[in-house]
């Protein structure tokens, strides 16, 4: 989401959307740095707010209450959000290595990836459920609730770690399970909880009075506290304590002290004795200038503190200030973390204990106080102010790059048109030399030939099938954008029952310094090449030019057997209509532009757009499909209407049977519609008889334009069930029978939409 029209001069990359980075993003959004491109590489698009986690488990908060959604926050900060996991660093080449995409280059880097409980104990990895990553804990918590309900006896649950996190989780889980079982009329089956702590008393980092209060609560709630009991082994159904004692358990939650991820040290960053990134008072790495770290993953060498979200939050503001200074090459300022801090520790039942230094106090009002603090904190990220877009020719640009470079790029508007706007040949050569497109023997002259055009052999008796499509970037990540666009274009060829063979790429890249343009092009084409490779299609050429925004198009060619080619015409009365993928990308991305979508909705839509229709096309053909199309810009109804007209039949669409992407019902109902939607709706109104469904809040989804949508095919009625089953077995989980084909009754072909 671009609030930042200035040319990209520097790259700030943030790894992890932890507490510190959430604050950095908000502060960057309030005051954008012209010429700075910010990229967030985040494994999870929703960051759990640690303070509300026990309340989420206890049932006091919803998922959205307790998570910071990085999608709208990144949009607010004018940052690109790459949904991926950092797995390493190339410190010499200044790039972040990711699990699923090409490396992300940086000028300045900041790491805020948190920590995980150390699972060094034998069996803990295999048998225990670590409290982090929290997403996995929340999923496992749902399984545990189902397991408790299904069990014929009260289960034994062990929580290993008797610090604040372990105690809060124990009490929160117990509270929620008691309520769940009471509602099911099985109050007596509440699991027995065992809390294991290695130290002689629980809450070793808090004062004795706080520990005593919690001992009292834990006893009153029937939790068996095993203090001074260091768990040394976990086996299926049992934990073993140092000294030999064992305890039978059904579930083990692991909430011990934080452990560091291995990759920062492996990359060569200086770390402390426990593997946490060693940083100076400025939060900059002690070994690598330009690399910063904050939160649990960082160890401030001069001011060691315990790992707590409160420190990660407090570091947000000074980290932001120093990142601003670093990108401008200004001297950094030191920050000294506070020594004592206020902890508000909950007992699961809307009661809390406040602890700071030697002081403590407790009560229901303490919980209310904490609830107020936490909600206020979260509102800072869920209620983002509207900010104006920046000026492309901002005088601040000279703080990021030498004036000559700024002047050259600012004159981009004066750059030549026609072939003068081409991206330099050396950049292109370097990018292409690093790609390894799929090779086909029927390509006589492709990318590596020096000819003016690609040459291909077309087999005798086959039909040549061609298509072209192009659009501006839909997602932040150019690599994903490349994959999605290629998949979208391939959909046309698959829908025809044809075999794609070659592609030409047409790219427009925004003006920028050579190395930025090169990196962008490399990512984009790497995505294209990967999607084409999956479809055994060669990239045989293309054209690249500079322009206002990143745009990608592909011209594809393929071949089809004349006897097998599938077209829009061919639908027969009695056929069923099968749709292979859910709809809703148009409305979801329209909501995203207004920062009204949720991260998980967009992540779900992206996954759907990445799914190739190749397998579906083969399956539909094998089950005797009579006509087929891919659902794209005209929406489901527009494409079905096109098929009905071409086939001279009527069709019936069942609104409730249409598979819809998560979140799209909400965004449609709230009126977030694509700019193409009104055009599609006008076409639909002219031709479709919508039998009383026009008032249904979901009805607009039939006009929603799709990017990389699924296939819509007519299949003989007697084969539709088996076809659907096979589609689902192939991984098209949302494939559905959405309607039927009928004889044309009168006038032009119609699509009737039933509720
Ligand atoms: C149950 C529980 C309750 C707690 N309660 C409190 C409390 O009340 N007060 C308090 O001060 N502390 C509390 N803590 C501790 C607190 O959770 C941590 O100290 C805090 O989350 C650290 O924040 P952070 O910003 O460093 O990282 P995190 O909050 O852990 O965020 C790190 C983010 O980075 C992402 N990430 C991780 N690895 C990668 C990667 N390789 N690539 C890309 N992204 C990555 C993750 O998706 C995650 O969203 C609690 C902990 C638990 C488990």
Protein described:
The longest helix is centred in the C-terminal third of the chain and has 21 residues. This protein has 4 domains: 185 residues, FAD/NAD(P)-binding domain (3-Layer(bba) Sandwich); 135 residues, FAD/NAD(P)-binding domain, CATH 3.50.50; 156 residues, 60s Ribosomal Protein L30, Chain: A; 190 residues, Alpha-Beta Complex (Phosphoribosyl-aminoimidazole Synthetase, Chain A, domain 2). The two termini are 36 Å apart. Helix 1 runs parallel beside helix 3. The model has no long low-confidence stretch (mean pLDDT 91). Helices cover 33% and strands 23% of the residues. It is built from 21 helices and 38 strands. The structure holds flavin-adenine dinucleotide. Flavin-adenine dinucleotide binds next to helix 1, strand 2, helix 2, helix 6 and helix 9.
Protein traits:
21 helices; 60s Ribosomal Protein L30, Chain: A; FAD/NAD(P)-binding domain; 33% helix; 4 domains; seven-stranded mixed sheet; alpha/beta; binds flavin-adenine dinucleotide; 755 residues
**Number of spatially distinct domains:** 4
Estimated radius of gyration: 29 Å
CATH class of the largest domain: Alpha Beta
Poorly predicted sequence stretches spanning 5 or more consecutive residues: none
Distance between the termini: 36 Å
Name of the CATH architecture of the largest domain: Alpha-Beta Complex
Mind summarizing the main beta sheet? 7 strands, mixed
CATH names the topology of the largest domain as Phosphoribosyl-aminoimidazole Synthetase, Chain A, domain 2
